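Quick note —
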Amino acid sequence: MTLPASSSPTPPRGHAFLELGERLRRRGQLDAAATVTAAGLAHYPDLGPAHDLLGRIRADQHDDAAAAAAWAVALECDQGNVGARKGLAFLAFRGGDLAAAERHLEAAVLAAPHDPEVSSALDRVRAATAPPIAGPVLLDDPAGGIMLFDREGMRLIGGVGPDASDEMADAVAAECAAVVRESVRATRLLHLGPWRQVIVEGPDSRSALFPVADDATLLLVRGASTPVGRVVAAGHRATVAARAWLERMT
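Predicted structure written out below.
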């Protein structure tokens, strides 16, 4: 069904106008979508998802100011509106305000912790805000806080920091292998797709696990004051180096 922009302002019964407005938006009939959504909002002014939809329509119309206003109202209706958070993060990222984008995405992750799209977007923003990392990745330096281990928890190369013995690194590898198994199991049960990373924040350090291959995982350990974005960026660099090392070993 196609509705022209001049159609009646009376929306479909109940909240069905949301589905119709979204369908029109996806078809590119933005004026009709805006008309239907605005008519629905006249009847349901406190319906957050409707303001979120209007924000997406305005963004598609390249009216960023109107989109931001609609998403702001959506958050007034419901601070946990993930769509509005994602939309405002998109506008902030496009405008170069990476700090605001990160704040909105962090709030979205809290509201929807199992949404892989939101988590991935937050990772990209954090990586973009991390300062550039110079120098080579030293996998063979146990003091470097980079360790590669296999699925059985056997340490392959590296270590967990200057103050950790080989025995401690071996124990950490075994514990991390158990964390990886649980991560794989959880993502499979929740149908989230393959796991991408696990970040653990403690009082003295920030640690992150990254999949390198089907049978190998990388652990990166940094100080507690290290920004998460820098941890993620360093982990991605180290993962590339670890894959190259594995290829040389096979």
